[in-house]
Amino acid sequence: MSLLDLQEKIKSRAKSLLPELIQIRRNIHENPELSFHEFETQKKVENYLQNKLGLETQRLANTGVVALIKGHNPEKRCVGLRADMDALPIVEVEDGRPYRSNVEGVMHACGHDVHTTSLLGAATILNEIKDQFEGTIKLVFQPGEEKLPGGASLMINDGVLNNPKIDFMIGQHVMPLIDTGNVGFRKGLYMASTDEIFITVNGVGGHGAIPHLAVDAVLVASHIVVAMQQIVSRNQNPALHSVLSFGKIIGNGATNVLPPKVELHGTFRTVDEDWRSEAHEKITKLAHGIAESMGASIEIEIRRGYPFLKNDESLSELCISAANEYLGNEHVQPLELWMAAEDFAYYSQEVPSCFYRLGTRNMQKGTHYSVHHPAFDVDEDAIEIGAGLMAQLALKALDQ
Questions:
Q1: Which of 6, 22, 38, 232 matches a 20 to 30 Å C-alpha distance to 124?
Q2: Number of domains in the chain
Q3: Residues with active-site annotation
């Protein structure tokens, strides 16, 4: 059977699978689990792969699952398909949806329920046509994308890229900025590295009416936050991209109480490893210098997070071409460089990889809210493309 015939078969099967896949997605959505605690989700994935598809499974990174679909000549090439399974500590809105989270304070607000479901759908399709392709598909269901150190890094440490060796890795992520029926790709640099910054400013507490007898930790912290902006605006090469933001300030004083310490929590993101290391040094020196000049001291910790995500040029070109054939050119759009981060980046640092976006926006259905929003939801019709296109991309990568 030609690849064109297989493509039509994949499309037809993805369409017929959609009602079942929607039910799978809703079940996962109703029962979300936080990063590195995906024990029940793991069992659901294993049950589907073992009992429905007849595949052997392996556990990695404690709550991860891996399985192989072997075609003819399985040693020829191996393509990895990745999905993440964890949810977020967010209270989901009560808006009448029948599949609202049953776990208060935990929600699939980033579409990982869709990613897991789509990969199960792709696995079903590929398993049914395994006698019609050469090579091996490695199904990678990973934990903990939302939390450092990132489940991808733990899966790699446990050997997910070996036995058999993965030649190409492909992953997808929902995107509420793209209409359902469309997908987005970007060749080369796509997403930023991410580091977490924790600064504690130690001053001397006191009465707000006699600040000269205290060391105002709030004032020191304020100077640090403002001064930090020059690290990007005046120290970084303008040709690079960086973001330095502080999203949390804790100073437990009162209207007339100067607290003895203030905590600052922030993030630094960039797309260049040399500048990343240099910026860490500048952040540390600047914070210490300001605190010392104002009579305070600081404690600072910079937790190095995910690396930048770089899509392999050749593999991405292949995937874009395959998506054009599968959906039509008008449904495949370019993506801008994005300063958010993804632990899929760990895979992209090790093997040629392609990470693309699945459109899920439908204004009439109300699926336009951003990821990590308590009202986030997806147009479930997108799961048909989520499963079918991933299967098609895997075949194209095997065949190149």
A1: 38
A2: 2
A3: 306, 380
